[in-house]
Every structure is written in structure tokens, then in C-alpha cells.
Amino acid sequence: MSRPSADTPPHESAFVAAAGLVVTEVSPTRVRGHIELGPDHHTPWGIVNGGVYTTAVESAASHGASAAAGPGRHAVAVHVSTDLLRSRTEGRAEVVAEAVHQGRTQQIWVVTVSDGQPLARGQVRLQNTGTGTGTGQEQS
Question: I want to staple 132 with a disulfide (CB 3.0 to 4.6 A). Which of 37, 66, 72, 90 is the partner?
Fold first, then answer.
């Protein structure tokens, strides 16, 4: 199992912690994790709020993109789009983020949230920031 790099923040914000994403693998091209969905994630109508999935999408992509950005750098989301495909009330949702494009200044990641069937799919464009060497894989 890969671990977050030394440049990864040591803890999540209270907001991200409340969403419940547990990151289990981080590499410069892939991130895996899960969320235990339950009543704390519900809308007033008893289903998981789409914001939970969107938070997982952005957070997973940010972890991977920051790992890829290079020493002394990190990545910040500049555009997040999440399609909510199925409703759910509880259970484990797996989160998988994969890099689609990794350039010197920006990256694009696709993230799926599923419980055996897709619950949500998102795409995140991130800006590499800070000082350091960057990914150096492509020009953006």
C-alpha cells in the first residue's frame, strides 16, 4: 500500500473528516479509499447528499495530484464536476481516482464512487502550485 508523501497534509479538515473519506492508497497516478455511508450523510429525504460524493471526488483527486506535483508543490482543484448516478442510504462506497492528464501546470483526474455499481463519477482539473520541479511529464 502506498502512503501519502511528506508533502501531504497530516490531517484533513473537519469538513472532509465529516464526509468520511478514508484514503487507503495514494500514488502519483491513482488513489483508493472508501466512505462508510449512513444517516450522518443524509438529506432531509433520507438519501446520501450529493455533496458527500463531490467532497470525496475532489479530495481523492487532490491527494493524487499533490503526490504527482513534485517536491515542495501541491495541487488545488480549479474545476470539479460530479455526476450523481444512483441514490444510496447506507453502506460502504469505494472511491477510486485515476490521473488522465498530468502536465507541468495542471492535471485532470477522473474519480468513481461505487458500491459494486456506480454511485457517482467526477472529473477534477487541478492547478499545480508552489515551488519545486513539478511532474515534468508534459507541457500544459
Answer: 72
Instruction: State residue 41 phi and psi, 5-degree precision.
Output: -100, 0
CATH superfamily of the 14-130 domain: Hotdog Thioesterase (3.10.129.10)
User: What is the 8-class DSSP label of residue 46?
Assistant: S
Q: What is the pLDDT of residues 6-40, one digit of tens each?
A: 444 546 788 888 999 999 999 999 999 999 999 99
* Residue 1 amino acid letter: M
Helix (H) or strand (E) holding 27: none
Q: What tens digit of pLDDT does each residue of 56-80 get?
A: 999 999 999 999 998 889 999 999 9
Distances (CA, A) of 4 to 30, 51, 96, 118: 12, 24, 15, 26
Query: Position of cell 482543484?
Result: 77
